Amino acid sequence: MISNECKKRLRFPCLGAGVYDKSIETARKAIQIDPKYGGAYYHLGLTYEKMGDVNKAIAMEKKALEVDPAFSMAQYSLGRITFKTVSTRNQRRLSRDSSGYTPIFRRSTIY
Length: 111
Hints:
Elements: H1 4-9, H2 14-17, H3 20-33, H4 38-51, H5 54-67, H6 72-85, H7 88-99
């Protein structure tokens, strides 16, 4: 298990610099140390997204949520990636199906 101190030092600086191979290597090492560390899967998903491999990015974000269902950054990232990859018509259907709420696009009346 990765200690909190180790998690603080594990910042994946290569992702912002565009050095994707180093970022993937760092995330994979973190997963080997602690397979239950959702942050490594999350950063791996971000790296794959930046590389343009959307399917792998989605799979890694789902894995991060499987390991840690309350990981809000992975939830946001998965939603953002999914939202960018589907058409507008499907976006409305997905939002309606997932929430059980059908949005009504009307003008609001001020009383």
